[in-house]
Specification:
The protein has helices at 11-22, 35-38, 51-65, 68-74, 182-202, 206-222; strands at 3-5, 27-28, 41-42, 44-45, 76-79, 83-88, 92-96, 101-103, 109-111, 114-119, 126-128, 131-135, 138-142, 149-153, 158-160, 163-177. With 225 residues, it is α+β, with helices and mostly antiparallel strands. The chain folds into two domains: 3-177, Sandwich (Jelly Rolls); 182-222, DNA Excision Repair, Uvrb, Chain A, CATH 4.10.860. The strands form three sheets. Strands 1, 2, 4, 5, 6, 10, 11, 14 and 16 form a nine-stranded antiparallel sheet that branches. A five-stranded antiparallel sheet has the order 3-7-15-12-13. Strands 8-9 form a two-stranded antiparallel ribbon. α5 (182-202) runs antiparallel to α6. Bound molecules: 2-oxoglutaric acid and fe (ii) ion (FE2). The site of 2-oxoglutaric acid (AKG) has 9 residues, from β15 and β16. Pfam families: 2OG-FeII_Oxy_3 (PF13640), PKHD_C (PF18331). Its cofactor is Fe(2+); L-ascorbate. One of its GO terms (molecular function) is L-ascorbic acid binding. This is Fe2+-dependent dioxygenase.
Length: 225
């Protein structure tokens, strides 16, 4: 499931993030990639252990942990501390698949189920730089307003097209979901969203309560803790 979630950060928050990141010590993005990715990755990243990356990353995780739509879609078990990247002057990231098991930094490991890009610049700030995600229906080009995010299954091949004018700055991170299978997660998301709409129309009727029970019983079946 590819899902666009708008307005995760406000315009003021994005401006503060961008101001702080403009003065950050950007480094070669190949520092955090395996041998296959290193061949196709041409961007810059803020080092993961830089205090600014930690502080801004924590704010993003905090926001998302209480964001009903993100929680419903990703069913997060663990979120890898967000990283920040920048592409400019032809910078790009060729077709790749994200690593399946990642080090959390605190000794724990995380299985990447859901990949996320949170845009910190607007489409008119740069030329190119589309995130292209492949699925059985073909290639999906994603270029969102600042403050919006896209989530997509970590099982997908994807790439970032060359940025030929301006700069593209984003936060990106991986989530280990309670439910590893994308199809099961998508079914739970759609069921949850339908229940929310029914509840808004009918209140907590018996049927809404029963459907909520079905939702939790499916999650109970599929969740891995
Ligand atoms: O910049 C992006 O939107 C995605 C980055 C990416 O695919 C990665 O770092 O693995
Ligand atoms: Fe990637």
């Amino acid at each position: 499931m590819l899902l666009h979630i708008p307005g995760v950060l406000s315009a003021e928050e994005v401006a503060r993030f961008r101001q702080a990141l403009a003065e950050a010590p950007w480094a070669d993005g190949r520092a955090t990639v395996g041998p296959q990715g290193a061949l196709v990755k041409h961007n810059e990243q803020l080092p993961a252990d830089h205090p600014l990356a930690r502080e801004l990353g924590q704010r993003i995780v905090q926001r998302l942990s209480s964001h009903p739509q993100f929680v419903s879609a990703a069913l997060p078990h663990r979120i890898l501390p967000p990283l920040f990247n920048r592409y400019q002057g032809g910078g790009n990231y060729g077709l790749h698949v994200d690593g399946s098991v990642m080090a959390m930094g605190d000794g724990q490991r995380l299985r990447s189920d859901v990949s996320t890009t949170l845009f910190l610049c607007d489409p008119e700030d740069y030329e190119g730089g589309e995130l292209v995600v492949m699925d059985t229906y073909g290639a999906h080009e994603v270029k969102l307003p600042a403050g919006d995010l896209i989530l997509y299954p970590s099982t997908s091949l994807h790439k970032v097209e060359p940025v030929t004018r301006g700069a593209r700055t984003c936060a990106f991170f991986w989530t280990q979901s309670l439910v590893r299978d994308d199809g099961q997660r998508a079914a739970l998301y759609e069921l949850d969203q339908t229940i929310q709409r029914l509840r808004a129309r009918l209140g907590d009727s018996d049927e809404v309560l029963q459907l909520t029970g079905h939702y939790h019983n499916l999650l109970r079946r599929w969740a891995e803790l």
